[in-house]
Amino acid sequence: MSLLSLVLQEIRHRKGNFLLGVLSVAIAVLCICGTVLGLRSHDRVTESLTGAMEAATQKEMAKLEDEIRKSMKGLGFNIFIYPDGQDMSEVYSQGYASKTMPESYVQTLADSNIVVVNHLLPQLTKKVKWPERERTVLLIGVRGEVPIAHRDPKKPLIEPVEPGTLVLGYELAKSLSLNPGDEVALLGRSFRIAKCHPERGSIDDISIWLNLAEAQHLLDAEGQINAILALECNCASLDRLGEIRKEVAQILPGTQVIETESKALARAEARNLASRTAKTQLAALQADRASLRAGRERLAAWLSPLVALGSMAWIAFLTFSNVRERLTEIGTLRALGVTSPKILTAFLSRAAITGLAGVALASALLVIAQFSPELIQVNLTASEWLILATGAPLLACIAAWLPALHAAATDPAQLLRHD
Amino acid sequence: MPLPLIPHSYLDMTDLAVISANNLMKRYNDRVTAVNAVSLKLEPGEFVALHGPSGCGKSTLLMLLAGLARPDTGSVTISGNDLFSLSANNRAKLRARHIGFIFQDANLLPYSSVLENVLAATLATPRANARERATQLLSDLGLGDRLTHKPRELSAGEQQRVALARALFHEPKVLLADEPTGNLDSDNAALVLASFRTHADRGGCVLMVTHDATARMAASRAIEMKSGVIA
Ligand SMILES: Nc1ncnc2c1ncn2[C@@H]1O[C@H](COP(=O)(O)OP(=O)(O)O)[C@@H](O)[C@H]1O
Ligand SMILES: [Mg+2]
Description:
The complex is a heterodimer. Chain A is an alpha+beta fold. Helices cover 59% and strands 15% of the residues of chain A. Chain A folds into two domains: 3-60 and 273-416, no CATH class; 77-260, no CATH class. Chain A contains twelve helices and eleven strands. In chain A, strand 3 (119-130) and strand 4 (135-142) form a beta hairpin. Chain A is rod-shaped, with a radius of gyration of 46 Å. Chain B has a domain at 17-109 and 174-230: 3-Layer(aba) Sandwich (Rossmann fold). In chain B, helix 6 packs parallel to helix 7 (186-201). In chain B, the strands form two sheets. In chain B, strands 6-7-8-3-9-10 form a six-stranded mixed β-sheet, sandwiched between helices. Chain B has a four-stranded antiparallel β-sheet with strand order 2-1-4-5, with helices on one face. Chain B contains eight helices and ten strands. Chains A and B meet through helix 1, helix 9 and helix 10 of A and helix 2 and helix 3 of B.
């Protein structure tokens, strides 16, 4: 008879005690695996959540950017370039700059390699009294487009006003009963009315457009302009104004660039907001998941050792009660000449078998759980299985150590007394 | 670690006591002197009955002789080996080979079969053809058809016969028995006593604690013990 067969026979005889030990080990193993696998599945869920969110955000951003690019292509956007040192609050309050700059600036810009501006329109604007008619009007001298040197010459965007003619705003034409073809006097000169604009509901309705050179002459500002209007500016970057400012500043230092409001700008803003919001949301999700994980980790950090210790205490208790039950048997074996180390080995083997059986039971349950992978995904590595398969019997042995030592060390004479 | 045992040829020399105790003393809790200055010698072929009132120290003496308890003073020599100068492991091995112990209760392993209970003797020290030897012993004791039974399926007398087979398994020089017939009917008691007689006749020696007059009659010599002292 070998020691192992003695141990196995005893286990078969006292199934209850053994099964309680096995169950306790299995529960501890399942608990510890559960927390480890739970953390792992948490990480998997986090990855897929943030991944999905990132992908969705990227798609949405791409769509928005695409839309903006398209709309900007269609709309372009418009900027005003104002003279150096112009007080912008004055521009906003009276509608034009009172400072002027040389008209040659337009040519300088046109001759430069400016890439972001498509059309350049110099103008000289001033609010004046129309002495002949006793009206206050906005006089706008325009020259039509200045062709940009490095581009193909293209159809002018705005028809220039012919010398000797005027274009009138709606309100002026209507209230003064003026029509195209009529002759009128302005600041002592005679002009023919070339065109009357339809109603615009803005200051345009009391504006008079005339040829720039004539306007300069009338306003005593030869060779001067007070604004350059750049139309249909396009650029790849979404920070368009910054790009244009940079480019214009290199060519005309000191000038000021103002963007007039456009739909494209609003969309670009919307896109920036959406991008910021998405980034904030993603960060919030990640922070949320991280704090959840930290919580789970904290729980695992004290739960796993607690469960392991609980199981060990339980095995120690079971071994102790097994020893108590077998005192006469131990005494008899000692009387037969069995050494105390062998007795110790017998009890430790029993504990090791309990641990192994517990791991086997837990593994079987985990394998069964694999049939419903949505419940739990058992993805333990080979070395983790090895740690389980050796760790559980080892801890069970450690737990059984004291009671087994007690069994081996007790005086056999005491055990065999019966009186 | 090789056991410093004296060769068999030397053991068989009849002038040598198989077991001898010299001035044994054992006190419990510094108050009870269970065994007091006991010296005794058992020679091959001797079957000795030890009797005396309850609590006079008979069981304690047997434990000391078997090396299961350590005396406060004195020594025990078995087949020329000073029992208490051996290491615990070697003492256990010596016990396995040279001492058979029988108790009032059979003290069988409840989870093992009759045959395996006898084979439990091989847990201490191996033996060639163990299964055949155990089967033979059990058949000789009338248990040939009970080999696979569990102890709870046997009567007290049958259980004690299994314990006897286990004690005789390694052909020990010394048989120590503590009231072995105390729980037995007369037939089984007679069988056990006859086995002791046979063991002694074959050159072994038997020390049997008993209250029973019939059992004492079966022995070749009787020793009386009183208050830890041999009269
Ligand atoms: N382990 C022990 N602790 C204390 N006293 C003991 C112990 N074993 C035996 N004794 C005492 O020693 C004396 C002898 O006991 P024992 O050897 O069992 O006597 P017997 O077998 O002759 O009845 C008794 O008084 C008993 O109470
Ligand atoms: Mg007694």
